[in-house]
Amino acid sequence: MKKTAKDKKLLKQAISVMDEGFTVLEKSGYTIIPASPVTFIRKYRRLAYLREMGRWFLC
User: Fold this and answer.
1) Residues 5-35, buried b or exposed e (16+ Cβ, 10 A)?
2) How far is Cα 21 from Cα 59, in angstroms, rounded to an integer?
3) CB 14 within 8 Å of CB 52
4) How far apart are CA 45 and CA 54, in angstroms?
5) Model pLDDT, residue 59
6) Are 2 and 57 contacting, i.e. CB atoms less than 8 angstroms apart?
7) pLDDT at position 25, please?
8) pLDDT tens per residue across all 59 residues of the chain
9) What is the pTM of this model?
10) Residue 43 CA to chain centroid, in angstroms?
């Protein structure tokens, strides 16, 4: 996890993949509960990146 946190490109890609997954689920008719992760990733992508990087450094 620490190596992944240091790889900025991989971390940004992981956040983009989460957003893409949320989009696919929503277009398929699924409701994401709780909705807060979706809102957080979409509104605050940069903050999500920093949050995940910090979380992985603490592992």
Assistant:
1) beeeeebbeebeebeeebeeeeeeeeeeeee
2) 25
3) yes
4) 14
5) 47
6) yes
7) 93
8) 667 667 778 877 888 888 899 999 999 999 988 888 888 888 777 777 666 666 655 44
9) 0.64
10) 11
CB 42 within 8 A of CB 19: yes
- Output DSSP code: residue 58: T
In whole angstroms, what is the distance from residue 6 CA to residue 12 CA?
Answer: 11
Distance (Å, rounded) from C-alpha 45 to C-alpha 38?
A: 10
| Sign of the torsion angle spanned by Cα atoms 13, 49, 44, 51 | positive
Distance, CA of 25 to CA of 57 (rounded, Å) = 30
Q: What is the DSSP string of 37-57?
A: HHHHHHH-HHHHHHHHHHHHH
Tokens representing residue 12 in the block? 């940004």
